[in-house]
Amino acid sequence: MSVVVVMGAQWGDEGKGKFVDLLASKADLVVRATGGSNAGHTVWANGQQYKLHQIPSGVLYKGTLCVIGNGVVLDPEKLMEEMDYLEAKGVDLSGLRISAGAHLVLPYHVRLDGAEEDRKGANKIGTTRRGIGPAYMDKYARTGIRVVDLMDRDEFLSKLTAQVEAKNELLTKIYGLPGFTVEEIAEPYLAYAERIRPYVANTVELLNDAIDAGKNILFEGAQGTLLDVDFGTYPYVTSSHPIAAGSIIGAGVGPTRVDRVVGIVKAYTSRVGEGPFPTELLDEAGSRIREAGHEYGTTTGRPRRVGWLDLVMVRYACRVSGITDLAVPHLDTLAKTGIERIKVCVGYRLPDGTVTREFPVGLKALAQVTPVYEEFPNWSFDPAKGTPRQYEDLPEGARRYVECIEEFTGVPVSILGVGSERSDAIYRTSFFS
Ligand code: GDP
Ligand code: IMO
Ligand code: MG
Which atom of ligand 2 is nearest the CA belonging to 129? Predict the structure, then answer.
């Protein structure tokens, strides 16, 4: 048995969905414990594309239990859309389990998210406008409404009435926007409640029983380390904890139960939304990577900002989460760009000329660093040889690149991605027996 956490080591969109789908073939349970519908995880399985937002990617395997933990802020309306989308593709949802402790995203959260972004104007965070920040604000202000409340009509109506009153004050008086009536939210939400009810479970018991019974558990991280509210590029972050620790808080599993933490590191860097990005490429190389990697948001469709791989950042992510293994997708994408020389950031030069491997705290400090690069000749895949299946089959340039990542971070690269399909991966270790 094993408990494995898969998490993003950059700014999200590293390829978590793909690797969770890969590892889920041997997992009994897959858990989403943080974030909400801001996540967009793309999985290609047998030529079909699946875009997942709140439901764990393990859902593509019949019989695998898929848990939405208490740490998620659950948008029931978006969940209904996702359930319809998956059912239309023939996916069996009977393994879905939803924590009664998960907080709800309500329509006023979504409106407030947009209103605050618009108010900030040029200083906006560039959120997904899915109501994530306002929903977590309510959770920590102790005014949130949870799935357990939604399951109890009277409780839900009473809490909703108080919240609608408070949020209407904000919306109308501060933002000059229309408010909501209790009825316009209650009616659809009470209908969602009935569709959700069969899936609601005591997920803390479920998960801990599964661990005790020696089952294989996989945590599917959302977002990435640099979007963490404590460890990310604050304030250009999300409102949850995408680091490994977030998984255990968001699911009710003790830290002693986790065996391995897999950090996903794209072979380059991407970021959606605003905020500093030391290795960002605003030139032709950037557009080539964006096009070769189809770097457009799964949730919002926004073009993703792209740049060279930043190992200072990845090393930091390894430390913050105790990453035991790295997974590096998109080795094929770099090859596809045709760019002759690939750069990797191996240090930050500070304004006084010294070079550091430490990731700084604060945007001002980060904005002042100049990346120090190591260069690698690009590689190419020989179409005659097909997709590489073994590490030894990778072009030498790609292997040197991988070794550089291992040397700098001190963490083994255990899985490599050489294409978007489920099968386009090379394992150098096994995670589940
Ligand atoms: P997530 O949010 O971390 O799950 O990542 P996204 O799904 O938002 O973005 C990752 C994108 O990279 C998706 O379109 C995946 O299909 C794609 N992808 C993942 N691994 C690889 C790989 O090794 N090669 C290629 N070409 N695409 C990959
Ligand atoms: P996955 O799981 C990439 C970014 C947004 C914005 C910031 C705050 O697919 O990797 P929010 O709506 O959360 O308040 O937005 O966080 N962001 C993501 N970027 N991948 C994600 O998820 C993201 N989820 C949020 O673009 O910059
Ligand atoms: Mg994504």
Answer: 12
**CB of 105 closer than 8 Å to CB of 72:** no
In this predicted structure, what is the pLDDT of residue 1? 73
CB 241 within 8 A of CB 35: no
Q: What are the distances in angstroms from CA 298 to CA 13, 27, 42, 363?
A: 9, 25, 7, 27
Mean pLDDT calculated for residue range 234-262: 97
Which has the closest alpha carbon to 52: 244, 303, 222, 226?
222
Both tokens of 355, joined, read 């070079």
Verdict on whether the full-model pTM lies above 0.85: yes
Cα separation of 419 and 387, whole Å? Answer: 8
Best of 32, 37, 42 for a ligand 1 pocket test (most atoms within 8 Å of beta carbon)? 42
CA distance 433 to 133: 39
DSSP annotation string for 55-81: S-GGGGSTT-EEEE-TTSEE-HHHHHH
Options 13, 228, 332, 424, the catalytic residue: 13
Are 262 and 355 spatial neighbours (Cβ–Cβ below 8 Å)?
no
57 C-beta closer than 6 A to ligand 2: no
Of 12, 67, 6, nearest to 236 (Cα)?
12
Positive or negative CA dihedral for 103, 108, 111, 117?
A: negative
